[in-house]
# Entry
Amino acid sequence: MTTKVVVTGSSGHLGEALVRVLRDHGYAVTGIDLRPSPYTTVTGSVADRAVVRRCLAGAGAVLHAATLHKPHVGSHGKQDFVDANVTGTLTLLEEAVAAGVGSFVFTSTTSAFGRALTPAAGEPARWITEDVVPRPRNIYGVTKTAAEDLCELVQAEHRLPVIVLRTARFFPEGDDSDTVRAAYDDANVKANEFLYRRVDVADVADAHLRAMEQAPRIGFGRFVVSATTPFSPGDLAELHRDAPAVVARLFPGYQAEYARRGWRMFPSIGRVYVNARARADLGWSPRYDFGTVLDALTAGQDPRSPLARAVGAKGYHDRPTGVYTG
# Structure
C-alpha cells in the first residue's frame, strides 16, 4: 500500500520541494496551504482542526513546513505568529496522535538560536550544534522554539515519533539587509553563505525524508540542517578575525574565481552551523556545499540543484513589502 504523507505549507519553497520529491518517490501526497498551487491539495489553515483532521485521515507521516517566517515579522503581529506557528503546530500534533500517524517531522529554523549566534568582539566565531541553548531575538524565533517544545512534549506524552529539523537558509530571495545587498552581488552572498549558514533546498528535502524514515527509531530528536562546513573548531578565532585568510587556506583556487567575477569574501564570519549529528543519526548525505558551488562557478555552471532551479523564487508577501515581496 502507498504511504500517504501530509505536507503543510505546500505552496511555499520547501513545501513545493517536498511534494515534488515525495511524488517522485511514489508517495501519495496531500498538501495543505493557505494559498492554492499545483502542489496544494487542500486550501486551508493548519490551525483549523476540521481541515487538519480531514487531511490526516489515513496518513502515515506529516511533514510540517507551514510557518510564518522571519520576513513576516515586519508585516504580521505577534498573535499571527502564535496562531500559525504555535497553535497550528499543536493542532497538527494532536490530530496526528488521534490519527495514529507513524512519523512527524517539524521544520524549525537556525533562527531559533538567535542571540547565541553572535560572538562578542575579540571572541572566536560560534560553533553552532544542537547543544547550543537557543536565545530567540524575535517573535519568529520565540514561536518556533515554543513549537519545538510542543513537539517534544507530545512525543513524551503520546510516543508520537517526532523529528525537529533546524534548517539553515535555503530561500532564493535576496538578503534582508540593505547593507549586504548594496555591498555584494546576490550570488556572491549565497556562495559565501554555503561556508557556514546556507543549504540547498534539495538537501533540505532529503533531510526531511530521512527524518521521516528514522523518526520511529529515534523517537524524538533535534537536528541542525545546513551544508557541511569546511571549517573546524580550530579555525574559529581566525574566522571571526580574518575569514578570507581561512577560506584561502582551505580553497586556494577561490580567490581567482572570485576576482574574475568581481566578488569578495565576507571579512568576518561569526558563526558556523554544524550538521554532523544529522549526518550521523539520520543517515543524511548533503550533496551541495561551498566546494561544489565553487566547482560549478569555475565550470560556468549554475551551482543550484535542479530542484532549487525548478522551485525558484516565491517571495513572502502578496503586496509590496520590501525585498521579500512575492
Remarks:
- Residues 319-326 have pLDDT under 50 and may be disordered.
- Residues 49 and 134 are 30 Å apart (CA to CA).
- The chain has one domain: 4-311.
- The chain has 13 helices and nine strands.
